[in-house]
Design goal:
Chain lengths: 165, 284
């Protein structure tokens, strides 16, 4: 059997058709083949969450997935966050001072997006639970939690305004 | 090159044929949250049989109102939400919520957690208390085995492993029971249990008399175990401070914790007693 396989993956809305080595990890496919370096490589064991991406809207760690496993699947990386709600999450992290070195941030934001897509108004306990797979060595987490609370309030109130119209 | 061959069969028959062909060279890949970590660490070439395309393994069915059949590749996250109701199966849902992180739960599967068979695995304690039966498929056909029996089999040196877990059958008798899972670990998440306690019990709400009691202990013996002496002590009795104290002390004697780099035997014994009391008080 050859060492490579042809795979077709949709990433951030674009279809990629590539020949990859069978043991190429998804994180390396994203970063080294496609040069989407927003997704970070850190523990490489699924513990830190820095490599978090969404597969069919579910948050997963890309360091434990082989690219060939996700042939024909839909993936979203931090570079794919384009709509209004996604940008509000990013702005909230900036405004609340939830970013220091920034290395954990893409993973934190992807997990936050996944949380808020399912639960528009999480309480503090739910936010902490949702982010339990994302480590930060800089901030002490408080401002990250504040950023998530703040954006969820903004999203909830802007949804109410839209519904009232 | 970690992957010598990669197959993604769409039926269990094809998967089993591949396993029979490649034998010890083969690894079954489901969520990858255990296997891929190990592959990266061991750096040996393996034949990967990816079973995620076998749709019959990714369903939860209710058979004749007698059994719930859970496909082996159903993710931990899906198990958590499916069984999130106030009945005996809640022990399984709770256990799933304590496993790893959301990112891990979105990929990890119940079959993987069982077959990896860590003494600290979160789902095994509740499955033991729910009288789970494991359904395996091999080149010789299908076989059903009670999880308690399988835990002894898979840790024996003669176990050959040439079978694939198809599904987990849970008797549909826990609807009017109470299920709970308590996990003690040094960190609140992304941590192995130092001690875990699963309880599935039936109790008369008015007079607190215990009709049925199953206690599953994890991480306190080479394999998950039922605290059968503690169970016998409690069945037919009133759940109160006295019976809770007795049961927790008996459980400590039944368990076989060791001293290792994570904790001493003495510390583990203290935690076993504490966790059982905590679980039983929550039920009371």
């Amino acid at each position: 059997m050859e060492d490579t396989r042809r795979i077709q993956i949709k990433i951030n809305g674009f279809k990629y058709d590539e020949n990859v080595k069978k043991d190429l990890l998804l994180i390396d496919f994203i970063r080294d083949k496609l040069f989407l370096t927003g997704t970070k490589k850190s523990c490489e064991r699924g513990n830190c969450g820095a490599c978090t991406v969404l597969i069919n809207e579910k948050a997963v760690v890309s360091c434990l997935i082989f690219a060939i496993e996700v042939d024909k699947k839909n993936i979203t990386t931090i570079e794919g966050l384009k709509d209004k709600k996604d940008k509000m999450i990013i702005e909230s992290f900036i405004e609340c001072g939830a970013i220091q070195c920034g290395f954990c941030t893409p993973g934190m934001i992807m997990t936050t997006k996944s949380l808020l897509d399912k639960n528009k108004n999480p309480n503090e306990k739910q936010i902490k639970k949702a982010l339990e797979g994302n480590l930060c060595k800089c901030t002490g987490y408080k401002k990250i939690i504040d950023a998530v609370k703040s954006v969820s309030e903004k999203i909830s109130s802007s949804t109410r305004k839209e519904n009232d119209r | 090159m970690l992957i010598k061959n990669y197959f993604k069969p769409d039926t269990i028959c094809k998967a089993v044929e591949l396993l029979n062909k490649y034998k010890k060279d083969a690894e079954i890949l489901a969520g990858g949250t255990d296997l891929t970590v190990r592959l990266k660490k061991e750096k040996r070439e393996k034949t990967i049989i990816d079973i995620k395309n076998i749709s019959e393994l990714n369903q939860i069915k209710i058979e004749n109102d007698k059994y719930i059949e859970i496909g082996s590749i159903v993710t931990i996250d899906n198990i958590e939400s499916y069984f999130d109701k106030a009945d005996g199966y809640k022990a399984l849902s709770n256990a799933c919520s304590y496993l790893g992180s959301k990112q891990i739960r979105n990929r990890a599967t119940i079959g993987g957690n069982i077959c990896n068979a860590s003494p600290a695995a979160d789902t095994i304690g509740p499955l033991l208390c729910l009288d789970a039966v494991l359904r395996f498929e091999s080149i010789d056909g299908e076989r059903d085995v009670k999880i308690e029996e399988w835990l002894s089999q898979c840790t024996s040196k003669t176990y050959s492993k040439m079978e694939i877990l198809k599904s987990i059958m849970l008797p549909k008798n826990a609807d009017n029971k109470i299920g709970i899972y308590e996990k003690y670990s040094f960190r609140k998440s992304m941590e192995l249990a130092l001690v875990s306690v699963a309880i599935v019990c039936e109790i008369n709400r008015k007079n607190k008399i215990i009709k049925d009691m199953k206690i599953g202990l994890g991480a306190v013996a080479p394999i998950h175990m039922r605290a059968k002496n503690a169970e016998k002590l409690l069945i037919g009795k009133t759940l109160d401070q006295k019976s809770i104290n007795n049961a927790s002390q008996i459980s400590v004697k039944e368990a076989k914790p060791i001293t290792d780099f994570r904790a001493s035997k003495n510390y583990r014994e203290i935690i076993i007693e504490y966790l059982i009391k905590k679980a039983l008080y929550n039920i009371m």
